[in-house]
Fold this sequence. Notes:
Layout: E1 21-29, H1 31-39, E2 43-54, E3 58-72, E4 78-93, E5 107-129, E6 136-162, E7 165-176, E8 189-190, E9 194-195, E10 199-210
Antiparallel strand pairs: 1-2, 1-10, 2-3, 3-4, 4-5, 5-6, 6-7, 7-10, 8-9
Amino acid sequence: MPLLAQSEKKAPTDTIKIPFYQGIFVELDVAPFVENSLINKYAKASQAHAMLNIKNKYFPVVEIGYAEASQSNSNGALFSTAGLYQKIGLDFRLLKPKVETVKMSNFVLGGIRLGMSSFNYSFTNVELKDNYWGGSEIINKTNIHTTQFWFELTAGLRIPIYKNIYVGWNVRNKHLFRNPKDGEETPWFIPGYGINDTSAWGFSYIVGYRF
């Protein structure tokens, strides 16, 4: 009779590897349509995404959109703009996928975007007062061209609802690379970014399809 029982052999470590390419996703952001009609009635926007799935871990993203805005104040001054914008970035899966999970299921993402918009804007009937000498002047400028850059920190979720159809959402915290200086002529609204401020928040609700 052996003094020591033989120990059970350990199961071999699972060596299943997730393939590099896991599909591409085409997505439509439907949040701007709600904002246009209920919240930011001064602006209209639309946005679409293409997202590559690498090993269910890394998700390079391209976002393209169009936005326009028109706003007046009580003195009759009017600001208007319209233009395209582009964003590129990378999302990371925050929760480690199971090694046997080849097809993507629910997943939580965090990432970053770099945004750029090259557009024209106009402002009319702006009253410029001289507080020292007195008097005022009406300023009208149209088709002023500018290019603005910013970055976004994002966090979100994707959930499959039927076969290759997915829904999800993203929360975005945006920051301009260059803040306007006092007295500098800058656009009130930036397509893709929103109201021109040091930082801004955004929300996306996404419907997508996996190819």
